[in-house]
């Protein structure tokens, strides 16, 4: 079965810029999938539409069979998003950010605290649980965003340039964490412009260029063409 199905997706921004020109692709449940493309290719626009943060101009999107137009809240619960930009309240303590996010999905505070403990420990942030988010380093903030995206236990995790600007050691520890998460059944889609990152993590890839899908294949197949 499919975690994500996209058919003929188009996006024209208000200034008439055509950011997506009819993209179709699908991601299997359990996959670790990379969306590759240069800056400006349309990756963030695509992710914005899947997560209902950006309205589409045309096309069809399904998350585990739920049409995002007809079944918006079901689709949203199944997705965890790690956006590129930090968008949490930097004055809030780390643990509270997670518990409040759980609350946003209707999860009781007690369960929220248990999950906060689980993910903060796994991501090496447990000693920082009482710190305000602004006290964290860039790499720690990224890991906090991953923990926040997981607190409602989504079946599909989407990360937009998850390791941009993160130093190599932290990047590798994030890779280990994501591999383990995928092994335990979470479907993962990430955007990156580092081929090395996609190569190290992903089984399947799509490449977009100027709003068009130019390739969808296995990582193995792509590498054999280089
Ligand atoms: P990527 O994530 O691959 O770097 P984006 O989806 O952010 O690409 O952007 C694709 C194109 O759409 C870029 O040319 C960008 O300038 C343009 N774009 C993005 N957001 C807007 C917007 N709100 N209004 C107009 N153009 C936009
Ligand atoms: P609403 O749908 O009520 O307008 P927002 O889209 O403003 O809510 O999101 C509220 C909070 O939930 C923000 O912290 C946002 O980053 C987060 N969020 C939204 N959608 C998701 C998602 N699919 N997965 C994880 N966090 C999400």
Automatic annotation (TrEMBL):
UniProt keyword annotation of Transport present: yes
One Gene Ontology molecular-function label: ATP binding
Residue ranges of the TM segments: none
Residue span(s) of domain ABC transporter: 4-226
Keyword field: ATP-binding, Nucleotide-binding, Transport
Keyword set includes Cell inner membrane: no
Descriptive protein name: ABC-2 type transport system ATP-binding protein
Organismal lineage: Bacteria, Pseudomonadati, Pseudomonadota, Gammaproteobacteria, Chromatiales
Stretch of the intact protein here: 31 to 256 of 336
């Amino acid at each position: 079965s499919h975690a994500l199905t996209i058919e003929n997706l188009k996006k024209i921004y208000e200034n008439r810029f055509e950011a997506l020109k009819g993209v179709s692709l699908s991601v299997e449940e359990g996959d670790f999938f990379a969306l590759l493309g240069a800056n400006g290719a349309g990756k963030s626009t695509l992710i914005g539409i899947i997560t209902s943060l950006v309205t589409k101009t045309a096309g069809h999107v399904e998350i585990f069979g739920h049409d995002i137009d007809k079944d918006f809240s079901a689709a949203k619960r199944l997705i965890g998003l790690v956006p590129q930009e930090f968008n949490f309240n930097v004055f809030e303590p780390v643990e509270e950010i997670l518990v409040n996010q759980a609350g946003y999905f209707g999860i009781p505070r007690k369960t929220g605290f248990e999950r906060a403990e689980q993910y903060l420990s796994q991501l090496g942030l447990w000693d920082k649980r009482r710190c305000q988010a602004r006290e964290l380093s860039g790499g720690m903030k990224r890991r906090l965003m991953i923990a926040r995206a997981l607190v409602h236990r989504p079946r599909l995790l989407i990360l937009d340039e998850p390791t941009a600007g993160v130093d190599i050691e932290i990047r590798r520890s994030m890779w280990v964490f994501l591999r383990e998460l995928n092994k335990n059944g979470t479907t993962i889609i990430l955007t990156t412009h580092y081929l090395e990152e996609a190569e190290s993590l992903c089984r399947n890839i799509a490449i977009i260029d100027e709003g068009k899908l130019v390739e969808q294949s296995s990582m193995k197949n792509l590498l054999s063409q280089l």
